[in-house]
Amino acid sequence: MRALQSHHIVDIYVWVAETLPDQPKPKGGRPLCILDSELLTLFIWNSLTNTCSKTLKQLYDWMAMYHVQDVRTLPTYGAFVVQCHRVIPKLLLLVSATLESNTSVRFCDSTMLPVCKQSRAKEHKVAKGFASWGFNHQGPHFGFKLHAAINAANRLVALVFTPAGRYDGQLLDKLVNEHTKYAVGDSHYGGSVERKKLWQKHHVIVVAYPHHKQKRKVMASWQQLLLHMRPKIEATFDYLKEHLHLVSSFPRSVEGYFLHYLRVILGYQMRMGF
Predict the structure, then answer these.
(1) Of 85, 71, 89, the residue nearest 31 (C-alpha)
(2) Residue ranges per domain, the chain?
(3) Which of 32, 105, 120, 134 is least crowded, fewest Cβ atoms below 10 Å from its Cβ?
(4) Is the pTM here over 0.85, yes or no?
């Protein structure tokens, strides 16, 4: 990412406003303190300049301290939270607009998004009915799972959120499309049934590590090269979780969790695009 200048916030606002124009407000009622396009711009700018605030309260305080002059009127904190939840569909559309959907070579994997510590899972109520238990090489987790695919430049090209208990191989079909030629992943994506389905549907070749019970498996040099590049997606997950605070237990609703996840991912995509 190149060095940011103060005028870049205007460039981001123009992109947001052109991608999702603000709809005229119906007559009557109170006027909006802050436009949806202004709020979405500040979501992105916060991620680019402040390593992404962990909570909406931190984001609101950051706006009040540094960006009062960039909005019509600073709303109350309660009205700010309501508007943040209301723009979730628009936030999802902006994330979709940044995905490199025509990528032919995709590196696929998943990562756990715990919503609380294991010891508190039985008492957890916020995401009850949506989150679930999941297991990986690090042990059990209670929460959600992010299934994603990236290109060779580490930009996200597809993503799916599920409860933590969903098996990776069952979601590979959601991470590819008609533009995909090769899907590269770990041994979870190597099932013969799913590979045949993807070949019949999209003519996708799945390149995956052999199962640990397979003693011998022939591999071409180009397949080995692609598998050596697969850790790129693990580095992407590490950056999202360790630097942009993708994992959080602060939201007080399911909508709050996905608002947090989407604004972090949007900020990451804009970082990779700058």
Answers:
(1) 71
(2) 8-86, 101-248
(3) 120
(4) yes
